[in-house]
Each structure stands twice: as C-alpha cells, then as structure tokens.
Amino acid sequence: MSSKNLLNTFQKIGDENRTALLTYTVGGDPNADISLEIFKSIANSGADIIECGLGHGANIGDGGAIQDSTYRALSNGIKTDDVFKIIKDFKKEFEQNIIIMTYQNKIMSYGKDNFIKKCNESSVSGIICVDWPWPLNLDFANKCKASDLTFIQLLCPTTSDDRLKSILSDAHDVVYYISMLSTTGQKLKVGSEEIIKKFNQIKSISPEKKCIIGFGITQDTISDFKGTDACVVGSELCRNITSSINDGQNPATKIGQIVNDLKERLS
Amino acid sequence: MSSKNLLNTFQKIGDENRTALLTYTVGGDPNADISLEIFKSIANSGADIIECGLGHGANIGDGGAIQDSTYRALSNGIKTDDVFKIIKDFKKEFEQNIIIMTYQNKIMSYGKDNFIKKCNESSVSGIICVDWPWPLNLDFANKCKASDLTFIQLLCPTTSDDRLKSILSDAHDVVYYISMLSTTGQKLKVGSEEIIKKFNQIKSISPEKKCIIGFGITQDTISDFKGTDACVVGSELCRNITSSINDGQNPATKIGQIVNDLKERLS
Amino acid sequence: MMDIKKGVPLIDQHDENGYWGGVFGGNQIAESLNYPIEQLTKEFEILRHDETFIKERDYYFKNFIGAPTPFIKLENLTNHLGGAQIYCKLVSKATGGAHKAYNAVVHSLICKRLGKTYIGGDTGAGYAGKMLSMAAAKFNLKCKIFMGAKDVERQSINVFSMRSYGAEVVPVHSGSQTLVDAVSECMRWWTSENESSHMCVGSTVGPTIFVKICAWSTAQISREMKQQVLETFGEIPKDMKLINCVGGGSSAMGFWNEWIDHDNVELIGVEAGGPEGSNKHAAPLSNDSPLGVLHGATQYVIQDDQGEIEETDSISAGLDYPGVSPLHCFLKETKRARYTSATDEEALEAFQLVSKNEGFVSPSLEPSHAFAEAIKIAPKLSKDTIIVVDSCGDSAKDSKIIAERLGYKI
Amino acid sequence: MMDIKKGVPLIDQHDENGYWGGVFGGNQIAESLNYPIEQLTKEFEILRHDETFIKERDYYFKNFIGAPTPFIKLENLTNHLGGAQIYCKLVSKATGGAHKAYNAVVHSLICKRLGKTYIGGDTGAGYAGKMLSMAAAKFNLKCKIFMGAKDVERQSINVFSMRSYGAEVVPVHSGSQTLVDAVSECMRWWTSENESSHMCVGSTVGPTIFVKICAWSTAQISREMKQQVLETFGEIPKDMKLINCVGGGSSAMGFWNEWIDHDNVELIGVEAGGPEGSNKHAAPLSNDSPLGVLHGATQYVIQDDQGEIEETDSISAGLDYPGVSPLHCFLKETKRARYTSATDEEALEAFQLVSKNEGFVSPSLEPSHAFAEAIKIAPKLSKDTIIVVDSCGDSAKDSKIIAERLGYKI
Ligand SMILES: Cc1ncc(COP(=O)(O)O)c(C=O)c1O
Ligand SMILES: Cc1ncc(COP(=O)(O)O)c(C=O)c1O
Whose alpha carbon is nearest atom 14 of ligand 2? Predict the structure, then answer.
C-alpha cells in the first residue's frame, strides 16, 4: 500500500466526480475484535478511506466523544501493536486505505523508525499527527516519504497565507484542512461556504494535492461538502459507538448504517 | 445589721478562740426557694457568716464550680432583686451576717446608691467586689461605710508590701486574703504555712482588722487554718450543689452535712 | 465635656487610674492581677522608649509580618460605584492574613523581656490566636489559646494553624461560646498563671495597659499608610474618610492612630449589625449601649437590665463581641469618630462586589463590614473625596461560611 | 554535550524551534494553535523590552502582589538542626499565598495588550487558578479555570476564592482528574477559543512561549532575593544552596533565575516522591523518566511503554504532575541543578518541624518537600553553608489534608 496508492485512490474518486468519504474511529475501541468488526462494517458501507485513531490519554486535540473512545480502548489494554494488528487483519480482506491519526508521544515512545516500519508491515497508507506541526515534523515526514508513507500536513483557518504556501510546498500528496478552531467533535461553528472558500484557496495554490476537510462534519452537514476532495466524519461515529455500547448493542451495526447514510448524503 | 455588727460577730468568735467558718454559695442557685433553703441549712449547720454570690456571667474570677452555679441561677432567671429578697427572707429568721460577693457590673447596672440602699434594706453586712480593686473602689467603699456597710478589701500573695499597707490603712474592719493566685475552686497550690505567714503579716500591720482567708479551702485542708480569724469554703459547696441536683436530691441536705463537717474540722 | 488633646498620643490621654475621659478603661481586675499588670505597665513604658526594642519590633514587622502592606486604589470599584475615589490598605497581606500579627509580635517580645516562657491569649475569628501562636513558635514560647467553642467550629482553618504552630487551643464552652467567653477564660487562666506566664489580649480591650500595647502595635498600619498617602497624593487629601470595622477595635485604632489630629480626615467605624431583623447586634457604639464593666475595663457594652452581657450574633466571628475598646468609646464621646453598623447580608454583598471587581482584595467578613459602608456612601460623594478602607483580614478563614451562604459548591 | 551559556538569560537559550539544548521544549501543538502562539511570541518579545509594560508589571508586583516578599533567617530551625545556616524566602506572602501570582499578573496584562477579554488557565493546587481569577477580576477579564475533579475536592479553599472572584471553575473528570488533565483540557479549550481568548499556563510547562513567560514572571523572586542576600551578607556567600520544590517548575525557575551564572550557588530541586512505598512518584527528573511530548513540549515525562502518561500520586496537588519544565530538563542535563525527591511523609514531617519552630513560615505541602531536603542535608553541612529554602506557598489551602493526616481535630 504505497503512498502512490493513496493518491491513486483519491484520483480515482476525483475522476468519478465524487467526494471521498473518510471515517475516523479509534483503533481498539472498545476492544480489538469489535474494533476490527467496526472497520469492516465501515468498509462494507462504502467509506472510501479509513482513519484509524491511535489514541493518547493526554491528547490536547480531542473533544469528549473521541476522548471517550480513546479512554475505552486504553483502559481495555489496547496497545500500539494491537492497533497495528487490527489494521493488518483488516487489510487482509479489504482494499480501503488506512490512515493512522495519532499524537507525537505515541510515535516517540514506539520509536520513529520502528513506527514507520510497522506502518509498512501493516499496509498503512498515511499518518496524521495532531501535535506535530510543520516545520517541526519535516524530518519525520521525510522519513515517511522515504518509506512510501504519506505524512499528511494539517492546515487550519488561522494558518497564514505565507505559512499555507510553505506547508503546501513541503506537503506530500494529501493535506488535511481543519475546518474550524476547535477540538474534534464540536458543532460546526463556521459556515460551510467559508470552509469551501479556504479549500478552494488551498486547491488554487496546489491543485495537484488532495485536501481532506475535517472537524465538525456530521450527517446534518456533510452534504454541504459535495464537490470537495474529501471529508471526514469522526466524533459522530465515536458518539454512536458509545451509545450502542451503553444500549448493549453491537456498534458495528449502527456504524454501518450511519456510514451508509453519510455516503448517500455525500453523493 | 450594721457594719459594727459584722465586726462584733468576728470579735465574739475571736473571743471564743474560734476561727470563723464562712461559706460561699451563689444566691438563687438553682432557684430562689432552694437557695434560701440552702442558706438556712448552712446557718443551721453552724456557719458563722454567709457569703452570698451575686453571680455575673462574664466574670473573670470564678472557676468552673462557681461558674456552673452562676449560670444555673442566671438561666433560671434570677435577678439582683431576687437575691436581695432571698437574703431578706433569710434574715427574717437568722442572725448570721450576710456578705454579698459580686462583680462590678452588677453594682453599676443596679446603680451604686441603689445597691447600697438595697443592701441596707436586706440587712446585708458587707460587700466583696472581685473586680473592683483598691484604690479604684475607694469612692464606693466610702459610700458603703457611710451607709454602715463593710466594704471588704482584697489582698493576695503578690500584693506588694507598700500596697498591702496602703490597702489596710484604707480598709474597713474586715479584709479578705486570697490564698493563692488562682480563680476560685482550684486546688490549693501553696502550702498552708505560707498562707498563714502572710496572714500573720497582715495581722501584724493591722491587728485590729479581721482577715478572712479564702480560695482553695476544702474539707481536706480547712483544719490547717485553725487559729486564723476566718476562712471560707465556696467551690466545694457549689460543686456539691451541682452533684446533688444531678442526682435528683435536695442540695440543702448535702450542704448542711458538709458545713457540719467543716465546722467540726475547724474546731 | 470630654476633649481630645492634640499632640498627645491617644493611648496616653488617660488619667492616672487608666481612664480615658475620666470614664473609659481602667483596671477593674481581681487583686491577683494587680501585680503583673503593674509590672507590665512599667516594662512597657520602658520598652516603648527603648531604641533596641523599637528596632527589634521594626525588624520583625518588616521581615516577618511583611510591612509595609500595600496601599492601592480600587479603580474598578470606584468606577462601579461612581462618586468618591476608593482606596484600600491591604492589611490582610500581613503575615497570617490580618492586623493581629502586630500585637502578637509585640506581646511576644515583651513576654521574652519579662523573662516569661509561656504566653496565652484569646481569639475570636482565630486571627489573634493564629498570630500569637505563630509569634510564639518563632520566639520559643509555649502558647495557649482560648477560643469559644462556637468559633473553634466556624473558624477551623485558623485553629488548624494554631495547632500546627504547636499551640494548645482551649475551646471555651461557657456562655455564648464566643469571643467574650474566650477573653473571660483567658483572664481566669492568667489570674492563676501570671507568675510564669504573660497574657496577650487580642484587641484594644481589657485593662488599660492591654489597650495601650495593642493600639501601639497596630499603629504601624497608619504610620506606614501616612507615608503611602503622601507618596500617592503628594499631600494629605482635603477630604478623606477612613473606614474600618470595629469589633474590639484594634484594627481601627491602628488605622486611625496617626490621623487623630487631622481634623479633615473623617474616621468611620463599622460595627456588626448581625443578621437582618435580628436584635443581636454586636454594635454597642452605634446602638448606644449603656456603660458597663467588662474584662476589666469600663466601656459601652451590650447588656440587659441586670448587667448581664447579652448574646450577640454576627456572621463575622471577629466582630462578635459585646463590648468595645475604651478608646473607641472615647472617640465616640468626643465625636472624633462616627460609628455605624452593617448587617450580615450587607457584609456578604460587599464581599462579593469587592471580590468580583478587585481580585487582589479578598476581605474576610470583618472588613467586608467596612466595605459595606464604603459602598453605601461612595456613590453620594464627590470625586474629590478619598475613601480608604482597611481590608484588615483575608477571606480564606471564612471560605466555609461564605461558600455556604452564597451557595457555592466547594 | 549540552551547555549553558553564561550571560544569556536561560529562557533565551533555546534554538529557533524553541528547543533548549536542541531537545527540550518546542511547540508540539495542533496547527490551530500555531497562529495564537506566534502572535503571543511576537507580542511578548515586544513587551519584555517595553518600559511602560515593565513599569506596569512592577507596579502590580509591588502594590498588589506585595513585592518584595521577606527574606529571613530561620534561627530556631538552624539551631535545631545544627549545621548549615537556614534562610527562607517567604514567597508565600505574595498576595494570594504563592508565587503563582507573578505569572497570573503578567498573563493578564498581556491578555489586555492583545485586546482579548477572556482568559483561561489550568490549576492543580488551585493557586495558579486563584491568582489568575484574582488578576482577571482586577483587570476586568472574564476567566475560566480548568481543574482536575480530584483537586477541586482536595483544594476546596482555593476553589472558593476562584468562585468568589467570579471565575468559572471547570472540574475536569477525565484521566487521573488532576493537573495533567486540567492542562490538557485547558489547551483544548484554547484551541477552540483562541481568537477571543488568551491562555495562561500555570507553570513553566507547555509550548516554549508559555515556559518563557512564566519563568520571566517568577524571576521576580530571585531578582529581589539577590538584593536581599547582598543586604544580609554584604556579598554573595561562598557556599550557598537554593532548595526549591519542583512540580512544573515555575517556582524553582523564579527562585534560581538570577543565580544560574553563579557557579558557587548550588541549585537543588525537590520533586514529589509520593506516599512511602508507592511507585506513583511525581518525580520525572530524579527518577530518570524517559523523554516524551506532553502538553506541546518535549520533556522527561512519567509514562509507560506505550507513551501513555502514568498516574502519579502526591499529597501535594501542586507537585502532582507527570512532566516537568523543559528548563529543568535542560538544567538537569547540563548538571547545573541537581534533583531529588521527598516522600509525602517526609514533607508532612518537615511541615510540622518548620511550623513548630518558625511560626511565621507556614509552608504549604509543596514547599514542605523543599524543607524536607533542607532538613536532610543541613545537619551534615558546615556552619558556613547557607541554605535558602523557597517557601513558595501558604499552608491554609492544605489545612484539611494536613489536619486529617496529623489527626488534629479541626
Ligand atoms: C480580620 C479581623 N478584623 C477585625 C477584627 C475585629 O477585631 P478588632 O476590632 O480588634 O480589629 C478581627 C478579630 O478577630 C479580625 O480577625
Ligand atoms: C505553592 C506551590 N508550590 C509549588 C507548586 C508547583 O508548581 P511549580 O513547580 O510550577 O512551582 C505549586 C503548584 O500549584 C504551588 O501551588
């Protein structure tokens, strides 16, 4: 699963005039088996690309919903290797690209090189690291590139024009636009026009790069983003995993239904 | 009951080669009726002179036993006039001299002249005021004298020789020697020889004045004071009033027995 | 007519028997206390003119108590109220959190000079006791603190401090179980123990010498403030009002001492009005209570027709005292100061207004009474009027009480 | 080899990416925080060289916080221990009762300069939060404080203060419910609100600029102390040891700042060793914890093999933090300071010994750790050695905890 492959996927979706649907759930939530089942259900329900959270307890970017998922996975003893194993098992049966979303300390404590190696072994396509901003991440990003992994740079509404250009010039094939100033899982507090405006700015600078839009997107708002490259839904899924567990139901079923619905709304 | 009369009493006892026995209980403790009964019982049991406390809640000279008596009387609504009435009723039947022991604020709030007048009407012989030291008390003492009331000056172990002489020179016929530095009702913490030494000093300066010794004297120690002019037992009686009440018994009976015993031990 | 003499320290304006105006104060004590009081009186007269002693005092005031405490303008409160300019003397910054530290240090130093090894004192809010135990620990004195059982309960944070400084805290269960009973019990203790022990009265009450020592000690407040006023305004403002709460009156005396001779400086004392609608005010001056003798001194005192001290009730333990300093009686009678009161509710509101507007000032419930008066009068006054409030205590000790009353969950 | 440069402020010895020694610190933050951090970094560079700003800072340090705090000799403790001379910088006398006031004032002033009306901050012991709400009330800022739910419980007196200053206190229920979670939550809040709001990090932790501002603010402690040392000894003592507790490390940095270049001054940091026998030390430096990224900065941090922060346990909420300032990591690595730890029990014993011997010093549990180290080493040292302990917090906030542990009835 080379970085080439991730770009290809995006390009194929672009060629189909579709907006890629990405999901975010936490790897190992609530445990390895069900988490794998959830990923499968997501894949079967039509998600194009799957973000898999490698959660960190002392994260500073997650809202309540994703924190709950993270704490659930961690307190059930999920380790970094477990998450890689889930991904590996998933990839045995499914084509969808996997992007790991994590925090720097998870990578550091695993060892940077080791982490990249393991990503390769598990057929991971890309890495998002929330607390490793440009340009501090360049060394690691280069290492990723050398190992055929896409390191996905983050952009946000207050990224200055200069910075935007520099980041884009250093970025790999795919970038991620954080739709608003917030942690994950908050209500979308800016209008979608504004988000799309910034998306267009990014595209005008780097037309060849694919841009994922994330943060605050739910069943209610996803249709606004038709026509962009890709968008992610995360907290809404995590919230539903929590409620399914609380109701004694299999979260995979519910998540599958929601992803189906998201897919429909986006097409 | 003129001040003459108090001196006469002392002189008569002196002539009999006896040490006068004085008692102290709080007027109105626990109520007017029983208090009167107690005074009668004391008189019947052979006390020579009776000190009647006109208690004050914010006193600064009483130990726990007398404080209890005071609070009991006060919380049962005993007023200054009630105490005068008890004394008056007592004097209708008994010869024993009554000395009021009180605090300055009781006298001030009653009105000084009024207080003296009432003492006269109730046949009180003398006044001890704990917190009205010489020479601040001289005006009032003179008023007492003019009304034939003995104002009893207090002396104590740390009264300097000069002060002792001055006080004695201003004193009426009777003075009171506080045996030790303490509030009422503490254990005698100085040897009786020491007390008697000071008593003798007082007598050598003013042989004509009668000197009451008080504070810390109980059934156990009273016999040490044979040969002095007079001694007072207070807290031990108050303590027994409390215990009798707690045991549901008539305190007058118990107090009578103790006074009997004290009388015996002193003779 | 009673008169204040100019140019003579107020504490020295008593007659040979210790009475200010011939009436207030004195030494109405048991004979057993006559000697130690005479001894203390003599010693203090020597020490207050002894340069070494003054240096020592100043050393501890500066290095331990942290003098001078700040003098600051309360801009937000001034703007909020519109009217007089409101300033604050932040005495609560004195080590331990209140003005009681000055008296405690001086008494401890005296105790050592007297060659005594034990010191005892009364406390209401617990500040006097906290500071005394604090100083006692420093000066290697054994220490005993008498405190009404009700106050032990409601001012437990200060009790904690006393215990941690190694003092013995004696809860007093008699009477109303508040300050008045604590003082009585402390005096009883001293009556027995005065040969080896020294007594510190926690406010400007008690026999004359205690009134004098205490006022002499807290006078540090106005001594340093006068300089700060001059630094701030370049001169003494034409129209200045000094507002202070009055329990026993030590804080107010210290705050006013240097200003007595300045007739353009109005002195306003605020007593505890107690709960709204209750009659148990702890406000003998503003309610014209009769003269009486309490704790050895003649003063206005809240009492019934039998001369029995009446129970008072105040949200602020430090003001919950039925008597008041002879010095304040004298200032009232000579009309040099005016006295008023604030209710529990007004004090609580003042606490909130001041806290929310002026973070650094966090008055305990006692000075909140003074702020209540400032808040009442400031809006009606001109911008040229300077109000200075003595914030003489820190609110930490009252956190439980205030939180309960205001429904904060803590 | 990492080296400290002489003549350059420690806070400026980082590289262009914000790393001290090329390793510690940095800005490992979400992209959403990049802009406000750049803005803050620029603004602070201007302000720290702006005379008006410095004057304003000094005005508030002096008149509100009450600088300078006393520098005193602990005669009794010195005599009791026999050995080194023990001195104490009584920082607990800063308004509010701890060194956290300096950082809070500076951040509030910066917040106003940035034109922001809202300020938020984290707190552990509650002092950082108390001081920030205090300053916010003064400077008319809305204020939100994040505090672990466990700390809200155990430091309720400080919570009371925050509420009374009008701050919103947000209990954080995630993770260990202590400081580490409060900081995380505060950073999350700021991520969302940084356009209108300013964030104050309560210690020398977080992204580089916060480390710098905080250390720059608490540096007041050593600036004024250097003068006091010179006044006291006439020169800088040949053999001086400065002992300070280290949680995040803001107090120690402030206490040491002016002394970094004086090689004859030994710097000793004391971390929280936790309950005797427990492994939950909050002592990343003295226990050689691995490097990690926490709250945006690279530092030694207590973590498991998965990079998950491990729960710590300390009787002192203020030291109960799994990470530590990049500055202290740098000082450790360059061997300029040495780090050790004291257990809960040792801290409690130190608290008692200091309180009973030296009333005026009433250290909270955090500085009690520093005193524990002083007590350990002083007896073995010569009379020519000067130990100075920073008593950076007042015990009032800990009364409940200490009383329970020592069995005082309060
Ligand atoms: C802070 C504070 N203010 C005022 C008082 C009242 O005492 P005084 O009137 O003597 O200042 C007290 C007494 O405890 C107190 O603690
Ligand atoms: C009194 C006190 N000391 C020390 C600390 C620890 O923080 P730092 O190491 O940043 O000084 C705290 C933190 O709350 C504190 O309140």
Answer: D318
C-D CB pairs within 8 A amount to: 146
> Does residue A1 lie within any of the structural domains?
no
Calculate Rg over the CA atoms of chain C.
Answer: 19
CATH number at residue A194: 3.20.20.70
Name the domain count of chain A: 1
Q: Alpha helices, DSSP H only, in D51-168?
A: 51-60, 75-81, 100-113, 127-138, 149-154, 156-164
Pinpoint the residues of chain D covered by CATH 3.40.50.1100. 20-60+100-215, 66-97+219-406
Q: What count of other Cβ atoms lies within 10 Å of the Cβ of residue B75? A: 10
List of chain C residues whose C-beta atoms are within 8 Å of the C-beta of residue B181: 32, 191-195
Query: CB–CB of B259/B46 below 8 Å?
Result: yes
Chains A and B touch (3+ CB pairs under 8 A): no
Q: Which run of H or E residues covers position A21?
A: strand A20-26
State the best of C27, C32, C40 to mutate against chain B, taking most chain B CBs within 10 Å: C32
Closest chain C CA to residue B161 = C35
This model of the complex carries an ipTM of: 0.91
* Environment class of B265 (CB within 10 Å of its CB; exposed 0-12, middle 13-18, buried 19+): middle
Q: Are B113 and C13 in contact (CB under 8 A)?
A: no
**Confidence (pTM):** 0.93
Pick the atom of ligand 1 nearest to C127's CA. 16
Q: What element of type H or E holds C340? A: strand C337-343
pLDDT, tens only, C230-244? 999 999 999 999 999
Burial class (CB in 10 A: 0-12, 13-18, 19+), D219: buried
Judge whether A21 and A46 are in contact, CB under 8 Å. Answer: yes
Which amino acids bring their CB within 6 angstroms of ligand 1? Answer: C 98, 100, 124-125, 127-128, 203, 245-251, 318-319, 364, 366, 392-393
Residues B67, B238: Cα–Cα separation, whole Å: 9
- What is the mean pLDDT of each successive set of 10 residues along chain A, which is 267 residues long? 79 95 97 97 97 94 92 95 98 96 97 98 97 96 96 97 97 96 87 95 96 93 95 95 96 97 94
Distance CA A252, CA C408 (A): 44
The CATH class given to the D20-60+100-215 domain equals alpha beta
| CB–CB contact C76 D352 (8 Å) | no
- The H or E element spanning position D200 is strand D197-200
A224 Ramachandran zone, left/alpha/beta (phi>0; psi -120 to 50) = alpha
E-strand stretches of A166-223: 174-178, 210-214
Q: Assess if residue B32 is contained within a domain.
A: yes
CA distances from B110 to B32, C91, C292 (A): 19, 42, 11
Is B106 within 8 Å of C307 when comparing Cβ atoms?
Answer: yes
Give chain D positions within 8 Å (CB) of A156.
30-32, 34
Exposure of A145 by Cβ count < 10 A (0-12 exposed, 13-18 middle, 19+ buried)?
Answer: middle
Q: Please give the positions of A annotated as active site.
A: 51, 62
Q: Can you give the residue range of the structural domain that contains B95?
A: 6-266
* Pair of tokens at residue C324: 């008041």
Which residues are within 8 A (CB) of C90 and not within 5 positions of it... i.e. 6 or more apart? Answer: C69, C70, C71, C72, C360, C361, C391, D66, D95
What is the CATH architecture of C66-97+219-406? Answer: 3-Layer(aba) Sandwich (3.40)
Nearest ligand, measured from the Cα of D272: 2
Interatomic CA distance for residues A112 and C338, integer angstroms = 77
Residue A91 in tokens = 């990839």
Residue A140 maps to a domain: yes
Distance C400 CA to ligand 2 centre (A): 24
Decide: A and D in contact? Rule: 3+ Cβ pairs under 8 Å: yes
Separation of alpha carbons B128 and B101, rounded Å: 5
User: Percentage of chain C surpassing pLDDT 90?
Assistant: 91
